[in-house]
Design brief:
Blueprint (H helix, E strand, L loop, with lengths): L1 H22 L3 E3 L1 H16 L6 H21 L5 E4 L5 E2 L4 E9 L5 E8 L11 E5 L3 E9 L5 E4 L4 E7 L5 E8 L3 E5 L5 H15 L8 E12 L11 H7 L3 E6 L5 E7 L7 E3 L2 E2 H18 L3 E7 L3 E9 H14 L9 H11 L6
Parallel strand pairs: 3-11, 14-17
Antiparallel strand pairs: 1-10, 2-4, 4-7, 5-6, 5-9, 8-11, 9-10, 12-13, 15-16, 17-18
Length: 357
């Protein structure tokens, strides 16, 4: 009976030390160490027949614990930084690059588990790699946004296990590396933003604008009247001065005010297709309109409201206006409240005095 009690006490002490080392000091056992401990347990079983079996197992276990501690202590410390992120949008996988620095003279064998914000998929599967001595290694991994939103200084980091030189111990540390990221709606891709920027650049460098003469109500010039012109456009004062019939020529209005007003109240929380909320479809439509307005050189702005006004961006021209609208649409969320339409339009009338669509 005594050998059984002694074996139980040894096993309990072994497990207790294992737990204490792992949770308090960050010293963990590798699969190799666990396999060695399993082999050593055979000596404990032999203690039922030979009196020295338990003694051998106890001594070997103590040696193994010391080796695990020393091995984990000798594990190479590393540092990690994240390079600036590209623009991300739902449905368009991107990439993020990390820089791992190993200042020591031995290779650093790492197992890392990355924690990302929920909008980027949350915790990631473990990755295993080695950094050569005195080297800064670059690791590029995919990023697949799952929903639009903004993350500023929130979740993010690594659970970092560094293997010792003997392979029996590993040192675990938690590295905090917050994310600063905006995930745009599905329409916003690098190609789309590049096309807007290119169109605006061509206008800025002086390429000739296309005029749609005869459309709209924006005065363009005077010219001599010809049969078929609208009689209502005749300029009688210019006709009297020049002694011939003169008509006004118009072109389509440019740089109009376009304001997107988005209801984010109770009805917009409903899922209408495959778990996609009604608000997401409204966001998509608003982004299409903003893009079209920018392509036509109009000023574009946005207001979102529920029981009160949440965001207001005054109409602006070109890239600046589209980017500010995109930033609002990326983070707007519905609320389970009744929308206040009268209050929203009173606010809009007070903030925007110009005629707008």
């Amino acid at each position: 009976m005594q050998p059984v009690l002694l074996a139980g006490a040894v096993i309990a002490a072994f497990i207790g030390l294992w737990y204490a080392l792992g949770t308090v000091a960050g010293i963990l056992w590798t699969p190799r160490a666990i396999a060695i401990a399993a082999v050593l347990s055979l000596f404990g079983a032999a203690g039922f027949w030979t009196p020295w079996g338990l003694d051998v197992m106890l001594l070997a276990d103590l040696v193994l614990i010391v080796l695990v501690w020393l091995d984990a202590t000798l594990a190479q410390p590393v540092t990690v930084t994240r390079e600036p992120l590209p623009a991300l949008s739902v449905g368009h996988p991107g990439e993020v690059t990390y820089r791992w620095t190993n200042p020591a003279g031995r290779p650093a064998r790492l197992q890392v588990r990355e924690v990302r914000p929920d909008i980027l998929g949350g915790p990631q599967p473990p990755r295993v790699f080695t950094i050569p001595p005195r080297t800064v290694g670059r690791e590029t991994v995919p990023v697949v946004p799952v929903r639009r939103g903004r993350e500023t200084g929130g979740a993010g980091g690594f659970v970092l296990d560094s293997m010792g030189p003997l392979g029996v111990g590993r040192h675990r540390v938690h590295v905090r590396l917050p994310w600063e990221v905006v995930v745009y709606p599905p329409l916003v891709s690098v190609r789309l933003r590049a096309s807007v920027a290119e169109a605006l650049r061509r206008r800025d460098v002086g390429m000739k604008a296309i005029r749609r003469l005869g459309e709209g109500r924006l005065f363009e010039s005077l010219r001599e009247w010809v049969p078929g012109d609208d009689l209502r456009h005749i300029d009688w004062k210019a006709t009297a001065r020049r002694a011939k019939v003169i008509t006004r020529q118009y072109e389509a209005e440019r740089r109009q005010q376009v304001l997107l007003v988005l209801d984010t109240g109770r009805l917009m929380t409903a899922d209408v297709a495959a778990g996609v909320a009604r608000l997401d479809f409204a966001v998509q439509a608003a982004l299409e309109l903003a893009y079209a307005a920018a392509q036509h050189d109009d000023n574009v702005g946005i207001m979102t409201f529920a029981d009160g006004v949440q965001h207001f961006v005054a109409p602006e021209r070109g890239r600046t206006g589209v980017r500010r609208v995109m930033d609002v649409l990326a983070e707007v969320q519905p609320k389970l409240v009744e929308p206040d339409y009268p209050g929203a339009f009173r606010y809009l009338a007070a903030r925007n005095r110009k005629r707008a669509l």
